[in-house]
From TrEMBL:
Gene Ontology cellular component terms for the protein in this record: endoplasmic reticulum; membrane
Domain of life of the native organism: Eukaryota
Subcellular location per the Swiss-Prot or TrEMBL entry: Endomembrane system; Membrane
Purpose of the protein: May be involved in both secretory and endocytic intracellular trafficking in the endosomal/prevacuolar compartments.
Transmembrane annotation, as ranges: 52-71, 77-98, 142-159, 165-183
Organism of derivation: Arabidopsis suecica
Family (UniProt): Belongs to the PRA1 family.
GO term, biological process aspect, one: vesicle-mediated transport
Name assigned to this protein: PRA1 family protein
């Protein structure tokens, strides 16, 4: 895959739609080969490739750094967990999986309440839904939960005086991710894995027709 022709918006869209249930890459693979890129175009291509391929590792890295920074502030740590959950809800696969498991659990206690959590009926035109991009969680649009959790996390950070620590932790983790993605050389496994996920996405789109 030629990552030079992939725009940043395409990478963000792919990260939003791709499944995050795959386990993180091994520690040995994550820290195996490093080299500085030879040109600016090589750096951009490598950065986009590694951000996509090591997405789960980077997400765990951010959570780990936040946990270390807020270990002495339990309330701020809960706020960081809510922030991580709201960010995870931005991924279509995670939001759909969470909604399915949560509604299934509620159904054991109250089938009537679980029925109310079903997403609204989507009108279908020519075999495709008119609101294909709309993802629902517990019967509500996904953005309702994202905004609610982000607001709650900000309140917790302000209450625990841990907002500066959160900002420092986020900036530190972001710097580490950029440095790693810039100097970690893409291996053959990363390229083959990208092709395999591209094929799955294309096949899934054809199966919906």
């Amino acid at each position: 895959m030629d990552w030079d022709n992939v725009a940043a918006e395409d990478v963000i869209e792919a990260l939003r739609e791709v499944e995050w249930s795959t386990p993180p890459r091994s520690f040995g693979e994550f820290f195996s080969r490093f080299a500085f890129p030879r040109s600016f175009s090589k750096w951009k291509s490598r950065l986009k490739c590694n951000l996509y391929y090591y997405r789960t590792n980077y997400f765990i890295l951010v959570i780990f750094v936040l946990g270390l920074a807020l270990v002495t502030r339990p309330l701020a740590l809960v706020g960081a967990a809510l922030t991580a959950l709201s960010i995870a809800f931005l991924n279509d696969s995670f939001a759909a999986s969470f909604n399915e498991k949560f509604v299934r659990t509620i159904r054991h206690f109250s089938p009537h309440m679980a029925a109310k959590m079903r997403p609204p009926h989507m009108p279908v035109i020519r075999g495709r839904s008119t609101a294909r991009k709309t993802v629902y969680v517990c019967g509500k649009p996904r953005w309702v939960f994202v905004i609610t959790f982000l607001t709650a996390s900000l309140v917790m950070w302000f209450s625990s005086c841990g907002l500066l620590w959160v900002l420092y932790a986020l900036l530190t983790s972001l710097a580490v991710i950029i440095v790693h993605a810039s100097i970690r050389t893409p291996n053959l496994k990363a390229r083959l894995n990208t092709f395999r996920e591209e094929f799955r996405a294309v096949w899934r789109n054809y199966s919906e027709l």
